[in-house]
Every structure is written in structure tokens, then in C-alpha cells.
Amino acid sequence: MNHRFLSLVGLAATMAFTGGCSVNKQTKATPVVEPVTATPAPAVTEPPVWAPKNHAFNPSKTRLHDLLHTKLRVSFDWEKQYLHGLAELTLQPYFYPQHQLVLDAKGFDIHSVNLMNGLDAKVLQYTYDGMKLTIDLGKPYTRNDKYTIEIDYTAKPNELAVGGSDAITQDKGLYFINPKGEEPNKPRQIWTQGETEASSAWFPTIDSPNERMTQELYITVDPKYTTLSNGTFVYSRKNANGTKTDYWKMEQPHAPYLTMMAIGKYAVVKDKWRNLEVNYYVEPAYEKTAKKIFGNTPEMLEFFSKKLGVDYPWSKYSQVVVRDFVSGAMENTSASTFMEDLQLNERELLDKHWDGIIAHELFHQWFGNYVTTESWANLPLNEAFANYSEYMWTEHKYGADEAAMHHLDELSQYLDEAETKREPLIRYRYADREDMFDSHSYAKGGRVLHMLRKYVGDEAFFASLNRYLTKNKFSDVEIAELRMAFEDTTGEDLMWFFDQWFMRAGHPELKVSHTYQNSLLKLQVWQQQDTLYQPVYRLPLNVAVWENGQKTEHRIDITKANQVFKLPATAEPQLVLFDSEQQLLGTVEHAKTTEELEFQFNNAKTLASKLEALEALGEELDQQRMLVLLQGALKDEFWGVRNLALDMAGRLPAKQAESLEPIVKKMAMSDKKGDVRAGAILLLSEWGDDAYTALYKTAMQDSSYKVAAAGILSYAMTGAPDINQRLATFEKESNEEIVLALASYYAVKGGPGKYDWFMKQMKNAKGTGLYYLLQSYGAFMAVNPEAYKPEAIAMLSELAQHHQIYYVRMAAFQTLMVHSERPEIIELLKEIRANEQDKRLLELYNQVSL
């Protein structure tokens, strides 16, 4: 599962939004631990806001029965959004004799339950509470007995209470998209999403990750629709009533939450890896670009298979794009599902690719599907590996700097979350299993695996993963099995590593200093983290020292809260680079002179070191030295450095930055990276010289949507008399970058005449684009009271109450707040708040005075 998909494309839109509720965020200082004395009693300090919470213990689910096989026959009532199902489940007691079977079955109408003996059916007694189906088997069965239950039922997913998380915004399992065909710009589709335990919202099962089954799925639909499910497509049969039934068979066992189906009008673009079928299911409009979107999949299959020494284990690999998906993507066995954002046209492909999310879901086919976490407490055994595959693939395909940029983003995500939440990676104490889908399980987990790789070495790392996969294939695991795979491979007891990084909360917060005297470099390291809640870490890492232009690497092993290392040095070091591989998950405070930072920028090869030095020098250098530094940084080979240099140039007064203008102008016209061209154009507009107007006009016609959007925003700031005329030529454009650029300007300068344009865009926008568009529309409503119309309020009310994505509902609520002085809006906001079930939104809404 990949949930990290919020785009930066709407940044400009957020600048215009002024309305909405405000949330007060309190931060608490880390307590000071005083020495214990008999009297007086020490003051009781509150724990830090991020301290691990003492929730109830969540064990793995006890296995009373083993679900061996599931056979489903399903058809649909599009009008009512029901699924009619006939399920045959083959089971046997796990160990102890059983006379009763309890199945997860959420929100069904149960029509009959029978014990099957061939074609003979025996009616069984059952009770049903809307969530659990309890069946009296009629007699005890032992672990040597298999039996088959047939259940005739109707699933009604829309009648279930809504739940979800940041990663998976809804959990009703089965989704009908535009079921009545009333939305002209949206296809009719049906798709499923089983993680965490939502498969039981569309078929009865034992909905737990430590269960595994083979399956057959018979899907009856109108012949105009294409179907996809797990495993192999066996046949399609025409029915007398004009429908067809597609038969999919999964012959290898997998967890119930990985069962999927997708139904819609798709173009199926065929590819292959070795002799394996690899297909891409996209909407017909994207048939020509499907291979450019997903086309690296065969290479990924080869790369991961060779790295792991375990060939891709399933009978096919398909990838399908669906509308209104409730997450970024989902790794259903042999058939991954993706959000619609992946569908790109030729021009959009110039600016972006989705290799990260594609690699993430593919790697899950090994880590998560082939070997599955036994409980949600062990979720990083799925997600940390899938997350780390993004780094591995990026390093392989796009180089070390691109991979390092990805790694820095991962570290930033985790550290941001750590401001308010620090939990062990493997945590059995959580309030809700959905809480596991956070930046700990993903970003921190991936970085921890990278540190493990750096510690044991590449050969041992991948040999250990091979052992882990081979030994535990088609089974469920917990963290100890991963540790033992590494220990059995390396011969080393790694409890210390797994304990501090997987089983303990937090991260190291280091302060480092160095001095040189008498041919000796003294390096002092303090671990400053609050050890009441976090460990004193053992940290094996490298320190690089440059003397007279020569680099020497030293290996140190930090084991104490305060530790001094003495390293040989024949001359005063030009630079001491702590954690020279930049692999540590944590924070490091290491004071350096401006000369050392300049040397670091020019000589350290790791991207993190260059960016760190450049950022720090922005606070230290005088104007002239800063300009010289930026002249070099703006020409750096890697676009990430050039982007940061543009940002830093933007912090300088325009007059002081005159010497950079020729470089920035050239970047705006010809940099090979669209992001950099766009950034350079926006910087020129901030400097505000009318001489760039022609450049903005050219940029608006750039092949890159990012650059064109930057051109629109920049030209809009010139005050030229033909702004509205020029911008109007883009109003039929549907690209998100262009729409949000226009919305940013129209929000404050468009006037009431842009009401219809905003309404059209909000009807067509999706996901993150709609989120940002709503913020601009809030500003538009604030500036243009004429926009307060029943149609607009009805649309915002519908979005705030019924949109599937929680943050879109929030944005619509905020937009309505622009008119919170009106009694009817106050009542509407109260109604929205009263009907909202998502705890994340309720926490925000309850802080608003209405």
C-alpha cells in the first residue's frame, strides 16, 4: 500500500486561500529528569507530546480454523450498489476440534447457510449481528477434517459506517463509481480495496493477515466491461440473459485482504517479462501512453528478482488504474490497483513519472504477499520493504543523487511526524490498526532497512532477504523471523539492532564537536535524546576526514551517551564529515566554520552533504562570497542542488542578486529539468523586472506544464493590460498545473465573471487537485460576494459531506467557513460536523466555534 501521493502542484493555490478554521497546536517541552532525592519529592513533569501512548495490547488473531479455499460467484445491482454473492468456503480446524465457525461478514443480508457435500446441501443454523456470522457446524470437526460452507448473501457496502486512515481514506471494501452514469466525465467502475480488513465487506471470510487461501472468482457483468482479478484468467462465458461471466483462478495461497476485482471499460495494454504476462489496464484515452507510464515494470521485475534471488512468484502481473481510489495504490496479489493520478498524457510525462509507487506495489508481491505480516503490529515487514524498494529502484535506474533525494524526503517525513508521535516500528499497542499506516511504518522503516544494509554489507543483506523469503514463503511472519534470517546468514547476534530500531521508539539526536591538536583529531559525540522514552543507541558509522585535499574514512562505533573518539590526523583537517555515508536516521548538530562548509559543498560527494552545506552557508556567508557560491550551485549537475540554489537566490534582495540574473534567465529558458525552469521563471517574477515579460509569454507555450503554469503565474504578476485575454486562452485546459495556476490568479483578480469557470473546474477536479482548487475558491468567494449562490453552496455541502477523500471534505468545510457569518451556513456547518464520522476531521471541526 502506498499512501504518499499529495502533489506539490497546488502550492500556488494555497497562497490565495484566506478563509477556514484555525487549529491551535500545542507543543510541550521535553521534561528534564532530575536526580532522585528522598525529600522533597521531585516535581511530576508531563511526558512530551510525542511520547508513546499506552494503548491496549493487540495480539495476532487466534486461528481456530484454517481457511483453505474461497470460491465466489458475484453479480451486481448498480442502481442499489449491492453485490449479490454465493460463497463456498473450504476450511478445517487449525488444531483443536471445533463445532462452530465465526466469519467476518460486514453489513450483509444473509439468505442461507449450507454445509455442502458435493451438490447436496444441508441447512445450517447461524446467528448474525451485522459484523460476525456465527455458524453451528452441527457436529465437532477435527484438524483432519475438511468441510465446505455455502453462503448466499447480499453485500451493501454503502450502508456501513465509514472508517479509514491517512493511508486508506475509507474501508467499505467495495466501491461503485458513477453507478448510475450520471457523471458525464467519469466512467462507471466497480473495484475493491481489502486492506486492512475490508474484504469482509464484500465476501464472508476470516479477515486477518495471518490467514491464507487459494481462490476462484466468477464475475458476472455486462459484456461491455472488462474484469480483472488475482491469478489467471481462465475463460469468459456468455449467459442467456445477455451478461457474461469471467472466471479467475488463484492457485497459490494468499491473505484475504489481498483479494481484488476491478470492473470497467479498460484498454488492456499487453507487455511481458520473461514468459510472464504483464498487462496495464487504463482508460482508453491513455492507451497510447500506458507503456510509458508502466513500461519499466518488466525491468523492475528482473531487477528485483535478481537482487532477491527469488523470481517473481505469481502467475501474472497486472496493474489497473481506477477512479476515486481511497489510497495511492494497493498491492493485491498479482494485480495492483492505482489511483487515477498515474494516467498521464504525453506532455505530462515530460514532468513526472510514477516509478516509485509502481516499484513499491511490485516489491510488495514478495514482501507482503509471498511473505505476509502475521498481524498489523508487524506492518513494517510489509511497508518498510516496499518503501525501501523505491530507493533501490531509483538508485539502479536514475542514479545515486536521485536516490539520495528520495532518502532525504523519507527522513523529512519521519522527522515531521516525530514532532508529535514516536512509537516503536513494531508496536502491539495501538488505538486502531489503521494507525500503523504512518510515516513510521513507511519512511522510518525504509531508512532503518538502509542502515541494516549498510551495517551488514550488500552481499549479506540480500542473502539474508533471500533466506527470509525462501524459508517463510506462503506464510505469515513477525519481526523475529526477519532478525533470525539475518543472524543465520551473518552469524552475528543482531538483537541490539532490531531492539533499538524496531522495538523502541524515537531516534538519536546527536551533538558532535571536533578539535585538532598534536596530530590527533578529537571527536566528541553526545546523544541528547530523552532516554526516559528512547534508548541510548549503538551507532556504527563512518567519519570522513580531509587533510591537504586527501580524504580518509574512519569507522567508529558509538555506544555511550557521551563518547570521545581520537583519530590520527597529520594536519589540521579541512573538513570532518560525521556519518559520511549519510545513512543515519536521526538528527545531527555539528558546528562548522564557513570555510569548512564551503569545502564540504565543493568536495563532499553525497547529496545530503552538499545540500546541508549550501543551506547552512546561506546563514553564514557575506554577500560577495554567497554570490560566488550560488554562481556555482546554479550550474550544479544535479537539479536538486540547482533548485535549492534558486530558492536561496530568492532570499537575497533583488539588487544584491543582479550578478545572478544572467544565469537564472538562462536556466529559465533552457534548463533541461522542467522543475528548474519553472523555479527560475518564478524567481525572475519575484525580482519584478518588466524585461522578463517576453520570457513569460514564451514560457506559457512551453512543452512542460510546470513551466507553462509558472509562466501564467509570472505573467499575471506583471500587470500587463492583456492578462485576462491571455489567461483566457488556457481556460479549456484540464491539466492540474494549469488549472491551479489560473485559479490562484482568478481567486483574487478574476472577478465575479469567473464563477462559472470555478464551478466547472470543481465538477471536474479530483483528489489533490480538488483539494487545492477549493482553497482558491474560498478566496474567490471572500473577494466576490456574488459567488454566494445556491448552486455553489449545494456543491460545497455535497463535497463536505460525501466526498470519499477526507481531506477534500475538510477543504470544502473550510471553504464554507468563508461565509460563516450567515445563519444558514452556520446551521449547515453544524450539520456537517454532526454527520462526520472521521475522527481526524472531528478533532478539527470540534475546535471551531459555531
Descriptive account of the structure:
- The protein is of the alpha+beta class.
- The chain has five domains: 138 residues; 201 residues, Immunoglobulin-like (Sandwich), CATH 2.60.40; 133 residues, Neutral Protease, domain 2; 86 residues, Sandwich (Immunoglobulin-like), CATH 2.60.40; 108 residues, Leucine-rich Repeat Variant, CATH 1.25.10.10.
- It is 36% helix and 23% strand.
- The strands form seven sheets. It has an eight-stranded mixed beta sheet with strand order 5-4-8-2-1-11-14-13, with no helix packed on it.
- β1 and β2 form a beta hairpin.
- The longest helix is centred in the middle third of the chain and has 19 residues.
- About 5% of the residues have low confidence.
What's this model, at a glance?
This protein is of the alpha+beta class. It has five domains: 1-21 and 734-850; 65-265, tricorn interacting facor f3 domain (Immunoglobulin-like, Sandwich); 371-503, Neutral Protease Domain 2 (Neutral Protease, domain 2), CATH 1.10.390; 509-584 and 591-600, Aminopeptidase N, middle-beta domain (Immunoglobulin-like); 622-729, Leucine-rich Repeat Variant (Alpha Horseshoe).
SSE blueprint:
Blueprint: H1 11-16, E1 65-77, E2 82-93, E3 98-104, E4 108-117, E5 120-123, E6 126-128, E7 132-141, E8 147-155, E9 174-177, E10 189-192, E11 213-221, E12 226-229, E13 232-238, E14 244-254, E15 261-264, E16 267-273, E17 276-282, H2 290-294, H3 297-308, E18 317-321, E19 329-330, E20 335-338, H4 355-364, E21 371-373, H5 380-398, H6 400-418, H7 440-456, H8 458-472, E22 475-477, H9 479-490, H10 495-503, E23 509-517, E24 520-527, E25 539-547, E26 550-558, E27 562-568, E28 575-578, E29 587-590, H11 594-603, H12 607-620, H13 623-633, H14 639-650, H15 661-670, H16 674-687, H17 693-699, H18 705-716, H19 723-728, H20 736-749, H21 755-764, H22 767-783, H23 790-802, H24 806-816, H25 823-835, H26 839-845
